[in-house]
From TrEMBL:
Protein family per UniProt: Belongs to the UPF0065 (bug) family.
Keywords for this protein: Signal
Pfam families tied to this protein: TctC
Residues in the signal sequence: 1-22
Name by which UniProt lists this protein: Tripartite tricarboxylate transporter substrate binding protein
Membrane-crossing residue ranges in chain numbering: none
Organism expressing this protein natively: Teichococcus aerophilus
Length: 324
């Protein structure tokens, strides 16, 4: 009888062990990747490039789902409230970590408490642009001189209140002593026609959104917000070269999951992102789309957030922006 009990116990333990092993084989079904911004925008385009790379690395479909609204908070909150099993992930730009907490009076999630930052995924510079048909400036110095002399100041467009585009614009004009009026749109796709029709004088927004229109010659690029010139558009001067020092600002993004995401899954995903970023063809696709592929450990992603939080807080306060 004792031998029979031992035999049955061993068989049961083996079965449980096998079930646990099967459950632990991550991933063994499709993964949802929530993009917190609309389809067709810079974040969406780069998210889809990342998703293709992750699919190759993980061996499972990675399905992009756009859930936009409230400056990305709706989509990121959906990730924060999901089950921490690695099957609901998201891409979260810098705003959702270190801008929105200072911008919104009520946040549906706490980026430190409710999210796991698995890895940085890409960074995108902002580029300062004008429509040459309406703004007679070929350089930043010419533009600022024109802007100071313009009755009533300049009108600038952005993809929304509190975005890096809004904060960068306010920083630039306050430093230069230029009177300005902010016109927020839903996305850069709406700002561009307004500029080409002369309703908006200026924009400084993600290169990913403006690269095509610059290359077509319909807009003049005055400066880019990176420390070095951008590889695919080396003709654009850095802001420092354009006469605006201490203006290195990039909009980075991270692969996120909910809090409590198990360490083995974090490591699996961080390794997958690292391999995606190491692929020369994928890196080129990111560059062509206006972004630069990144990869970090979860600790590295958190360190970047902690480092930049004071800077973005200051920029939000300087802008005076506040959202309900």
């Amino acid at each position: 009888m004792l031998s029979r009990r031992l035999l049955l116990g061993s068989a049961g333990a083996a079965a449980l062990s096998g079930a646990a092993s099967a459950q632990g084989a991550y991933p063994n079904r499709p993964v949802r990747l929530i993009c917190p911004y609309p389809a067709g925008g810079a974040t969406d385009v780069l998210t889809r490039i990342l998703a293709e790379g992750l699919r190759e690395q993980l061996g499972q479909p990675v399905v992009v789902e756009n859930r936009s609204g409230a400056g990305g908070n709706i989509g990121v909150d959906a990730v924060a409230k999901s089950t921490p099993d690695g099957y609901v992930l998201g891409t979260a730009p810098v705003g959702n970590f270190v801008i929105n907490p200072f911008l919104y009076r009520d946040m549906p999630y706490d980026p430190v408490r409710d999210l796991t930052a698995v890895s940085l995924t890409w960074e995108v510079p902002n580029v300062a642009v004008v429509a040459g048909k309406f703004v007679p400036a070929k350089s930043m110095s010419e533009f600022l001189a024109w802007a100071k002399a313009k009755p009533g100041g300049v009108v600038y467009g952005t993809s929304g209140v509190g975005t890096s585009a809004h904060l960068c614009s306010e920083l630039l004009f306050k430093r230069a002593g230029v009177a300005c009026t902010h016109v927020p749109f839903r996305s850069a796709a709406q700002v561009i026609p307004a500029m080409l029709s002369g309703d908006v004088d200026f924009a400084i927004d993600n290169l990913a959104s403006y690269a095509g229109i610059i290359q077509q010659g319909q807009m003049t690029a005055l400066g880019i917000t990176t420390a070095q010139r951008w590889p695919t558009m080396p003709e654009i001067p850095t802001m420092a070269e354009a006469g605006v020092p201490d203006f290195v600002v990039t909009a980075w993004s991270a692969l996120i999951g909910p809090a409590g995401l198990p360490a083995p899954i974090q490591e699996r995903l961080a390794t997958a992102v690292k391999n995606v970023a190491a692929d020369a063809a994928v890196r080129q696709r990111f560059l062509t789309a206006g972004g630069q592929a990144l990869a970090t450990t979860p600790a590295g992603a958190r360190a970047r957030m902690d480092q930049e939080r004071p800077m973005w807080k200051e920029m939000v306060e300087l802008s005076g922006a506040r959202m309900e």
